[in-house]
Amino acid sequence: MLKEKGKIEHEIWSDKLTKVYGKGDDAVKAVTQIDLRVEPGIHGFLGPNGAGKTTTISMLVGAISITEGRATIRNEKAGSVAAKQLIGFLPQDPTFYDKMTGEEYLIYMAKLGGLRTKEARKKAQELLAYFDLFDARARKIGNYSGGMKQKIGIAAALIHEPKLLILDEPTANLDPIGRADVIDKIKKLSDRVSVFVSSHILSEIEQMCKKVTMIDQGNIVISDSIANIKRKFVGNVFVLDTNMNKQLLKPLEKNENVLKVWLDEEDERIRIVPKDQEKLQKMIPKWIIDNNAILFGFHQPELSLQDVFMEIMSKKEEGGPTESNSDLSLNDRKKSKKEKSEKKSKKITFKEGDSR
Ligand SMILES: Nc1ncnc2c1ncn2[C@@H]1O[C@H](COP(=O)(O)OP(=O)(O)OP(=O)(O)O)[C@@H](O)[C@H]1O
Ligand SMILES: [Mg+2]
Q1: Domains, the chain
Q2: Which of 22, 64, 124, 259 has the smallest C-beta neighbourhood within 10 Å, fewest atoms?
Q3: Ligand number nearest to the C-alpha of 51
Q4: Ligand nearest to the Cα of 91, by number
């Protein structure tokens, strides 16, 4: 099939993209041979703390060197001037000129991007209005709230009209209202620009994106549309609700039909990934009675990304291949002892409001 003229297939593309920090015994393999395929639209980049999101993004925007492999931004080599011009970037910890007002800052950034004063002011005011910062335009950025700072950061990234916006955890450290506002603004931007946005909060990504790439320990765990991911994994997580959910967790962990069990922090019901689905379904009602509990419900829910990720991770911990990446356990085994012990001590924090 002929490609539509001028239409880009991949906003971001990479082949075995790898980053090793340091040398010798101190070397840290932060990103391992990842193949990214990011199509136009809003694409989520998920992973727990330390997964390698910022490292990947830093290579894509040309802020750090690529150790091995290659990457392109809309067919231009990552790190090249041509690629940089296509990108608007908000880093994880942006720094601002706190003494400048919001408007002064955007005009300054626009002029750096080559606009004349009049055009720069027009563009700045348009973006201030879009981000609901017009009334705060004459206030110093140092006095802005966290949410306002993130929005002025995104506005600054947009000032030279990039084709692709790369946002590294734009909602981190915001309160729920600030978060919802930033998410809403990012979603609406998809009409005019593609967005690659990282987060460790699955529910947030689910609100913004149709497609996601999940990474963990520098490897891609899964990359697909959220709908496909859920379809692939539907049927493997059960919800169990009783009058004593917390007390049943320990005995369930030891049950031969249970692969993974945890308590959902939001609804406080039990989630179970079975070893053998049929056996689990047959066993649960009697098992509940035997444990002197009252059964309120036992069913397979519509999955959240959180459930899917927990399931993928449970298969990975078991050492078995996942549906999405049969190399995963192999990659783990290849890791050094040091990395393995770091892995053990690392908690996967994939919940809204987790401390960072
Ligand atoms: N400059 C550096 N030198 C050495 N190691 C580094 C450096 N930057 C990151 N790392 C390591 O690389 C790994 C990936 O870190 P990275 O910051 O890319 O993760 P992340 O997914 O962005 O995490 P977070 O959600 O906490 O922002 C971690 O083990 C981290 O300690
Ligand atoms: Mg990061």
Answers
A1: 12-230 (3.40.50.300), 232-345 (3.30.70)
A2: 22
A3: 1
A4: 2
